[in-house]
Each structure stands twice: as structure tokens, then as C-alpha cells.
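Subject: Sanity check before I submit

Could someone independently write out the C-alpha cells for this chain? I want to compare against mine line by line before I put it in a report. The sequence has 191 residues.
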Amino acid sequence: MSKHGIDEPEEPAEAEPAVNVAAPQPKRRKAGGVDWVRVTAYRVLPALAVVLAAAAGGLWYLTSRHGNEADRTAVIKVASDGTTALLSYEPDTVRQQLTDARKLLTTPFLDEYTTLTKSVIPGAEQRHIAAATSVPAAAAVSVEENHAVVLVFVNQTVRVGDQPPTSTPTSARVTLERLGGQWLIAKFEPV
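---
Independent answer below. Compare away.
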């Protein structure tokens, strides 16, 4: 007991020094208590990678979007106008209209269309069949330097003689190829 009546703890006997079993760690440079190696490895480098990836993606988006806008507009117009020309005719001028439409095509579709028109022309002339086609909407699916795909929505009204006309809405996938600087229809697939 001490002179104040409080038990004081006894001083421990000399303890053996603790043995550190772990391997000594290399000293890292710290400035102001900040471990800059960890900060760089786990925060700065990943943040920099994200920023660079976002910048690259944004640049790609801007250049591909604006660089292709003129081509997108051109292929949509060619596909829309071409679809109208391919599917519209009057009984008195069907031969000339469908022959003129062939100028908008390239192989392999040119051969298919030529074969098809050989059966359509006589029927349209004999039975007085007229077809009026419009494309109310179209969208470019893909546009590359010399190849494009456009989805067209088609409204076609067919009149046979004096009978009431029948309307058929449909859609088609139009594949275009650029040959000699001009977009031509290479495939026309109803979907």
C-alpha cells in the first residue's frame, strides 16, 4: 500500500523482449503522412484510366456521328427513293418505269429484279394494275465507307382495274453498295 491508502500495482518483473516474427517491411516514402505509392497505384492511375477511356469514347462518338451524318442522310434518301421507284408503276407506263428503276440496282439484286419484272410487266399491262408506294419512315442501320443497310417502312396501295384499291404496310431491309461514288441497291429483303 502507498501512503495514500491506495494499492499500487506491483512493478512487473523484467519482461523478455518481444520477438517480431514478421519480415521487416521496406520503408515507403511518406510526405506529411501520405503513402504516395498507394495513392498513385490505387487512386490516381485508375482515375486517369477512366478519364482517358471516357475521352477516347467521346471522341470516337463525335467523329463517327458527325463524319457519317452526310452518308447516313444519303443512304436513307437512296433507299427511300429507290424503294418507291422499284414498287410504283402505272399500267400504261409500267415497262418504262420498271426499266428505269433498274438503274438504281447492282448485282445480285439487279438480276432478281429483272427476272421479277418480266412477269409483273405483262400482268400490269393486261389487268390494268397500278401500284403507288410511299416510304413514310426510314432509318440507317449501319453505314460504312462502301456498304450500308437501311430499314424502310413502306406503304403500298395497289389498284386492279376499277376495283377499290388495297393498301399494304410493310417494311424492308435495303442493302446498299457504293460503286463509282454512287449508292446502289444490292439487296431488298422484306422483313
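---
OP: Matches mine. For the report I'm noting this point. The domain at 51-190 is CATH 3.10.450.50 (Nuclear Transport Factor 2; Chain: A,).
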